[in-house]
Structures are given as structure tokens and as C-alpha cells.
TrEMBL record:
Keywords: ATP-binding, Kinase, Nucleotide-binding, Serine/threonine-protein kinase, Transferase
Protein name, as recorded: ATP-binding protein
Family annotation (InterPro entries): Anti-sigma-factor_SerPK, HATPase_C_sf, HATPase_dom
The keyword ATP-binding is annotated on this UniProt entry: yes
Superkingdom, taxonomy of origin: Bacteria
Species per Swiss-Prot/TrEMBL record: Actinomadura darangshiensis
Classification via CDD domains: HATPase_RsbW-like
Pfam family, one: HATPase_c_2
Entries under SUPFAM superfamilies matching the protein: ATPase domain of HSP90 chaperone/DNA topoisomerase II/histidine kinase
GO molecular function, one term: ATP binding
Amino acid sequence: MLLAVSVPAEHEAPMYWRREFRGRAEEVRFVRAFAAHLLAGFPALDDVLLVLDELAVNAIQHTRSGADGGRFTVDINMDVAGVIVYLTDQGGAGEPQVRSLAELAEGGRGLLTVDALAATWSWSGTPEGRTIRATFPARG
């Protein structure tokens, strides 16, 4: 005789999603829609969406991801502690850095926005490809 046992779902099990996007400006809205759908109800959703928007725009404007045929990948991790987003681009000549307020003109606010909204952020990689990571804790 086969017994079926009901096991409650673990509320602390982490969730993980990944999607690749074309390195074109019109894809940025799809990045936001991807995250908004997955993270509906997350308290800091607006901050996550704005950060992903800035990271996607930066990848398209400042890396090889924005060249013909370029791509970038968005990863989203969510667990009881909060959300971590990753954006991996195809690299470029410069390194991601926050500009000082004195250096800002028409542009250059992307990582300043990320720095202001994410609890933490960091990057790793080489000129051939980089990943930027931003964290958003769950609020009580």
C-alpha cells in the first residue's frame, strides 16, 4: 500500500529566476515587467524596479551588451531575508563606479541611484563581462 503524506511548503525556501534580454533600449521595460511580476507584493518593489532600470540602461549604454547582437542577463533571488538582483553584461572598457555630484551633468546618475536605493551593491568581473549585484532587505 502506498501512503501519500502531505508536507507543507517551506516558507523559507529561496526562489531564483533568470532571464536574458537583448541589449536594446526597448528591452528595459521588459526587465521591469519581469521583476514586477515575480516580486509583486515585495515592500521595496519600486526601489528594485528603479535599480534594475538603471543597471539595464547602463549595460546598454556603456558595455558591449548594447552593440549589435548584444545581450545581458538578469537574475533575481528572493528569500525571507529579501531580494538580490544581478545584472550581467558583456563587459566594456571602463569599470562601474559612482560619480561624485560635481561630475554629474546630463547623465551619470545610474550608479548613484543604485547606491541610494539598494542596501548594498557590488560588482565583479573583467572587461569581457561583469556582474553587478544589489540587495534589498525584506522590511518587517
